[in-house]
TrEMBL record:
It comes from Marinococcus halophilus. The keyword Ligase does not apply. Keywords: Membrane, Transmembrane, Transmembrane helix. GO terms for molecular function: cadmium ion transmembrane transporter activity; manganese ion transmembrane transporter activity. The keyword Amino-acid biosynthesis does not apply. PANTHER family: SOLUTE CARRIER PROTEIN FAMILY 11 MEMBER, TRANSPORTER PROTEIN. The lineage of its organism: Bacteria, Bacillati, Bacillota, Bacilli, Bacillales. This is Iron transporter. GO terms for cellular component: plasma membrane. InterPro entries: NRAMP_fam. It is found in: Membrane. It is a multi-pass membrane protein. It holds the Pfam family Nramp. It comes from the Bacteria.
Length: 405
């Protein structure tokens, strides 16, 4: 009887940790930029944007499955696998991840401040400080791991339910969107949106958020693969569901002939759909997206350096606190540094080819994965993802060159 009760408890903890990892990855990619990006692309390409969403989801699954499975089988984080493939590569990857993570976290904090501003009229900077303090408290409480595993899925569900409700009220042309997901009006025009979505969904630290979380919570070895594979798929599908719902909500509004506010297109979708109530719902969605991204960015970015020294491992929670505090202070003092964010975006486009490429090589090294045999179709999927993100990185670098001219 006691054994049965213990098994139930263990299964309950296992389920909580798995969903925590799934939503940590998913909500890390659903940040303030996600909302604006999806809205702008939808208003530009209308129903044809469905093709970009479908293509990006397929590529994302390929990237996530490779990374989650290989890392969990090896029991090592991304930077350690990279160092084993090519000495020193892991340190380069970690540096790029942390730099990009800090820059994007400043944007996440800014988004949280705007969300609070919409809800309560408090200034965005004060809202950002409040959010930063709340995130720090979450990581300093004794049961921080449990709090994160419970809080992140709740925030994810809140976002999905609210955006889903707004989508229903806009009455979008779903049938046309389904057709255009396979037969868009212009395939070539959608190349940039596809690589942008892939970079935003699995670029930088985001790809490793769930896998690192599972390793930190004790999931490793071949016996964990069935659960890990399911978690990786659910993570991408959760992000995909959120993007599809937001896409359809925007499509319903623009198809009805409404013009979106160029200054805040995502907010105007909610406001057009439901008036002032919709605007407040946008505030909830924006804040939920932002604080979950703050937590995901800080946790995962620090996870890329904590294995380099025992003292970093011992005090990693305080490193996370410092990461959040620094991001919040920078925004509160100097605002959102646009140039820094653009540069970080370019670096973000180059991180996944490095990290995923090293993981694909590692999948064939017995010294890393033992007797595990990585499926050939996953390897092919991964190679496609590497090529796509190389294109994304090249396009981002072109943007940087134009910026400095």
């Amino acid at each position: 009887m006691e054994q049965n009760r213990s098994d139930l408890v263990n299964k309950g903890i296992q389920r909580r940790v798995l969903w925590g990892a799934i939503f940590l990855m998913a909500t890390s990619s659903i940040g303030p930029a996600f909302l604006t990006q999806t809205t702008q692309f939808t208003s530009q390409f209308l129903a044809s944007f469905a093709f970009a969403i479908l293509a990006s989801i397929i590529i994302d699954i390929g990237a996530q499955l490779n990374i989650w499975r290989v890392l969990v089988v090896s029991g090592k984080r991304g930077q350690d696998v990279a160092n084993m493939v090519f000495p020193g590569l892991g340190f380069l990857v970690a540096a790029l991840i942390v730099l990009g993570g800090i820059a994007f976290n400043i944007g996440n904090v800014a988004g949280a401040g705007l969300g609070i501003n919409v809800l309560f009229g408090i200034s965005p900077k004060m809202g950002a400080v409040i959010t930063g303090i709340l995130a720090i408290i979450i990581f300093t409480v004794k049961s921080a791991e449990k709090v994160i595993d419970i809080l992140i899925p709740i925030l994810g569900v809140v976002m999905i339910v609210m955006v889903g409700y707004v989508m229903i009220t806009t009455n979008p042309p779903v049938g046309e969107a389904v057709v255009r997901s396979v037969f868009p009006e212009d395939y070539a025009a959608l190349v940039l949106p596809v690589v942008t979505l892939v970079g935003g969904t699995v670029g930088g630290y985001i790809t490793f958020a769930g896998a690192h979380r599972l390793i930190d919570r004790g999931f490793e070895g071949k016996e964990a693969l069935p659960l890990v594979t399911k978690a990786a798929n659910f993570g991408i599908l959760t992000t995909g569901v959120m993007r599809v719902l937001l896409f359809l909500a925007v499509l319903g509004v623009v198809s009805a002939g409404y013009m979106l506010d160029e200054g805040n297109p995502a907010a105007s979708v909610f406001q057009i759909a439901l008036g002032n109530v919709g605007y407040k719902i946008f505030g909830v969605v924006l804040w939920s997206a932002a604080i979950s991204s703050v937590i995901g960015s800080a946790y995962t970015s620090v996870s890329f350096i904590r294995s380099f020294h025992p003292q970093l491992e011992k005090y990693y929670k305080w490193l996370i606190v410092g990461f959040i505090a620094f991001s919040t202070i920078v925004f509160a003092i100097v605002g959102e540094p646009v140039t820094l964010l653009i540069v970080a975006g370019a670096l973000n486009g180059l991180i996944l080819p490095l990290t995923l490429g090293s993981v694909l090589i590692a999948s064939r090294k017995k010294s890393i994965v033992g007797d595990y045999r990585h499926p050939a179709w996953m390897l092919i999927f991964g190679i496609v993802a590497v090529l796509v993100t190389l294109v994304a990185g090249f396009l981002s670098l072109q943007g940087i060159a134009d910026l400095w001219q």
